[in-house]
Design a protein that fits this description.
- By secondary structure, this protein is α/β, with parallel strands linked by helices.
- The chain folds into two domains: 7-168 and 319-363, Rossmann fold (3-Layer(aba) Sandwich), CATH 3.40.50; 172-310 and 370-382, 3-Layer(aba) Sandwich (Rossmann fold), CATH 3.40.50.
- The protein is built from eleven helices and 17 strands.
- The chain has helices at 20-33, 45-50, 68-74, 113-123, 134-145, 170-191, 206-213, 229-242, 282-297, 322-340, 371-374, and strands spanning 7-12, 37-41, 63-65, 92-93, 109-110, 127-132, 151-154, 194-199, 219-221, 248-253, 266-271, 277-279, 305-309, 345-350, 353-358, 375-376, 381-382.
- The strands form five sheets. A seven-stranded mixed sheet has the order 3-2-1-6-7-14-15, with helices on both faces.
- Helix 1 packs antiparallel against helix 3.
- The longest helix is centred in the middle third of the chain and has 22 residues, at 170-191.
Amino acid sequence: MAKHKGTIGILTGGGDVPGLNPAIRAVTFRALREGYRVIGIRRGWAGLVDLVPDKNADNSEQVMVLNEDTVNRAGRTGGTFLHSSRTRPSHLPRNIVPPHLRDKYTDEINDVTPEVLKNLEFLGIDFLIPIGGDDTLSYGERLHEEGMKVVAIPKTMDNDVPGTDYCIGFSTCVTRTIELTHQLRTSAGSHERILVLEVFGRYAGYTALLPTMAGAADRCLIPEHPFDIEQVTELLVADRRRNPSNYSVLLVSEGAQMAGEEEMTFEGMEADQYGHRKLGGIGDKVAAKIKELSPKYNAGRRINTLNQRLGYLVRCGNPDAMDSIVPMAFGNLALDMVLSGTSGRLVSLHNGCYDTVPIDIVTDHKKIVDVTKYYNTERLRPKYETFNRQPLFIMTSDL
């Protein structure tokens, strides 16, 4: 067997985004050419939980050795060919503890990190490169604290991982949101309605704010500012009146809340292993209330609404140019860290320059929109005040 400089493990966790496969490709190509072996861990942290550390066990569902042919084909596509999950090894429910560990872990919620560390040692992984959002990467930080060499790559549609201006998937999300909103204008205009579109954004409103800044919508509602539905309705009715085609457009972040509500709008009560319930439905509520209140601002005549949740339409399919280029740079930057023997870092993009920051920043604070600087609460729109020396995506530079 040929000798290697070392073994690198790579995984993807959380929701899929366009750009994951290009990142895996970048890491693998560079690593192989530098003399490393690369192991793809399947289904995020689940692969390291379910793996059986026995040389005679069939772990093909948990790991795969990566080569140039495999990653080159996948690197042009969206999603993640390594698959993903929201498994959290430090908070593993008893009902999904793998069979070979059930006698050992019997609590309702279990921390199986010792098994993850054993499995990493069994695989001979010297460096681990997790690609994910702050949930996935928070466990990467845990492994770093346990002594594992970790270099993390940020991805999320919401662009809310602290420490970086940009996360893989964000540009494609913004691009698709703009495209789909413009396409739906034809129906809104044909029926002279108010178009309400629900977009991603649990805690941060970047995916509503940026498309609105680009002209996709008249107004936007973000999680950082509880909104007054009367104000929303009055503004949108006025926007519709000014529009020659007699319609207006509103983007609503899935995490936005009406003033006075105690929590976000959820699809159900079930929470994932990170404590998050599935969001969805705020767009429905807003559209219904606008329709109900519209006569008050439209001379007594009701205005119908057209309501659509964009959802997975903005995260499926192939990456755009930005989400093809940035993952390539992030993957190579991660390999720079490996080659220098540096770990405990998050690769980042800040003010137009690639860099790295300590990985513990992912659990240090939430990255959200600075409402005072970037959101006009009177007009429910982005502020257009100072662009000089601002980064490419404007309000994303506050780490």
